[in-house]
Amino acid sequence: MTACVPLNPADHFLLAMDREIRKAGLPGAWCAFALELGGEPDGDALETGLAELARRFPVLGGRLVARGRRFAWQVPENPVIPLYHHTWDGAVSPALETLLNGAGDAFASPPLDFHCFRGEERCLLVARWLHPLLDAGGVRRLFDYLAAPQRRDRYHGDESSLVLRRLRSWSWPRRLRLLWRGKRHNDWIDRLASSQPARPADGTRRLRHTLLRLDESETAQVLASARRRVGLGGQTLYLIGSLMRALEAAGPALRRDAWCIPYAFDLRPGNAPVPVTGNQVAALFAQADHATTTDRDALFRHLRAQHEDAVRRELDQAYLPLMWLGQWLPLVRYAEILRWQKSGGERASAWFSDVGEVRWATPDFLGAPLVGVHHACQITAPPGLAVLFARHGGRLQAAINYLTPDFDAAWIDRFRRHLRDELLAG
Q: Which end of the chain has fewer beta carbons closer than 10 Å to its terminal beta carbon, N or C?
């Protein structure tokens, strides 16, 4: 007998994005998180770990189903997380591109599978998942669960949605007040039309992936600059500001009023092991007009003041009631509200993520040295560009995900150089 687990409001938000990605001719809201290993992990331990993972979190082996206007994960009695093996030539980006461009339909495919790419000296272990299933923080916890059997007991706990828990802790007057505040904030964001780095082009779209890597000394320089510019804990704002200035330097294809970058933040307290499944995030926007973006000092002052004002006015909470309301709308209508400004243009100038420092309790993964981590995702068109930051082993890297033919290699190379320069500009 199967069970059904409803999507939480943040999951439903991502399902609306899945629809929009598929509308652009792409497979849907698929993501990949990969460990680059300096050897082959213990295969028996990996298979045993995946079997235990499916028993502990059976929703990971479910299937997405529609239930009227709502959606749920249909969980079988004996859930399985598939593991596939491939030969590998050592190139990371083509492997991730192949997996995400070749993903199946959200309603007909397992929402999570693992792929082990074996090379002559290294391996790439990839988790490919449908974004409505869980967020990047949840995927990191999956790898931690697999890597350290002695730590698995810590992953027994409440898996209910933090979004719903927070909403239920509020009185109805507070929910309605924040709902109205979130709508007003959206209207305020839309007073400035968002610039776009590329115009949608004719032809079959494909996801492409490339990396910008900084060494340890360069990363230390970036972190010091972030502390000086936006204060302790302000790394995300520094990365967003650097991204905006790199977009400005590379040149917008559609120049309007401002750059607008949506970003999510984790609702889990600290390094809490649970919840693992579901998207446990809230969202905010960073926005700066072109005049402000061209002045480096002014931009970081503006972003810091904008964020402090958002927290003071509880705008970091105000999108939770909007997400709750959105789950009752048809996906097509919900997606229109999420994406399109009243001017008719796309609200997001680029997608952004900062997963922070990625580390585990041990320096290896099932006996194989951990060399690096990689992240990739499908994107709507427009904007057709997603920049995903992470740190591992004291080194910062940016995974630049983009769509062709909307972007060409020359623009991406120019953008990557500008992003590096901005990160290191101090």
A: N
